[in-house]
Amino acid sequence: MPESERAKLLRSLSSTIFCQALLDELDDSDSQSADLDEAQDMYCGVKLNRYLGSRSNVARSDAHRHLVFDLRDDEFKKSLRVTKPMFESVWQLIRGDVRFAQRGTKPQRDVAVQLAIALEWFGACGNGNSNWNLVRHYGVGAGTVTAYVSRVRQALLQHYGRYVKWPSDIHRAVSSAFHRERYGLPGVIGMVDGTHVCFDQKPHIDGALHYNRKCRYSLNVQVVCNEDKRILMIYTGWPGSCADSTVFAKSPVLQQTSKHFKADQVLLGDSGYTVSKHVITPYKKPAALRPDNAAFNDVHCSTRVIVENTIGLWKNHWMSLKGIMTQVRKKRLCCRQ
């Protein structure tokens, strides 16, 4: 982001104060010069005011805010990416979160409106993901959009473990039986694949490490799903330059295998993963040329494609995952299972 006029003025005044103080020190005078006093007064005045000039209200319309909840079911889903019953469920889930509590004299806007703004933001990418579109539609400020998205995201993350969780022994047994009967692959409880969530700009922190093989800056995201395209685990926080096998090897799933697998249970992964006791990959050439191995690879591929479809559905539904326009300026602990 370019430097604001206020920041430029503060930097210039700071340099002036330093130089004038140095000149006064060399002058061996006990009295402080009028120029230094004036520069210090100006610096304090600018520092105390957030804006250099008077602010003027920008004309906005909040018609869409009142209209969105009266849309037809199909139009509502196109706009907010969820059905009306699903929206109601999510609203009921997060409405009591402490982040939506009134903290000052001015009450927060209705949680339903904040959720609607956040869902539209999550479901858009590129120019459609800009705050300005939501500013025009909902009649709120650009900074307010950012605040709403942050609140809703944090409120939803409180329930992450309730919906994205590793299957129980019974569910793993059901998945294993399905793959044995459908594909002739006993012990398979899911599929794993990696995807990249790209940044629109190079991160300020360790930017070079995020440069991936597709010449984009990104985070590596590992996804495990079952035969129903239900996501069982998401593990991220590693830069895009890291290989899928490296990142997945550090995930809790492989770090704590006794907790996640029985002795005969496995995941299917592509050839980019390392074969292990609980990860099965296709044969590579020349072994893949043998008829029996080629037949296994065909079955393996037709099964493993489920996770590719799952990731495609996930990223096409919540299109903000295709490109994050937020600048990364601070380090945060972001590895998540």
What does the secondary structure layout of this molecule look like, with pairings?
Elements: H1 5-26, H2 34-48, H3 63-67, H4 73-80, H5 84-94, H6 111-122, H7 131-138, H8 142-157, H9 160-163, H10 169-183, E1 188-199, E2 217-225, E3 231-239, H11 244-249, H12 252-255, H13 257-260, E4 266-268, E5 279-280, H14 291-317
Parallel strand pairs: 1-4, 4-5
Antiparallel strand pairs: 1-2, 2-3
Helix pairs in contact: 1-2, 6-8, 7-8
GO molecular function, one term: hydrolase activity
Family: Belongs to the HARBI1 family.
GO cellular component, one term: nucleus
Number of helices: 14
Give the count of structural domains: 3
Sheet with the most strands: spatial strand order:
3-2-1-4-5
Written as H for each helix and E for each strand, in order along the chain, the element string is: HHHHHHHHHHEEEHHHEEH
The secondary structure category is alpha/beta
Query: Which descriptor suits the 3D outline?
Result: extended
Instruction: Bin the strand percentage.
Output: 5-15%
Characterize the main sheet. Answer: 5 strands, mixed
Number of distinct beta strands? 5
- How much helix, percentage-wise, in residues? 40-55%
Round the mean pLDDT to the nearest integer and report it.
Answer: 89
pLDDT below 50 for ≥5 consecutive residues: which ranges? none
Spatial gap, N to C terminus:
32 Å
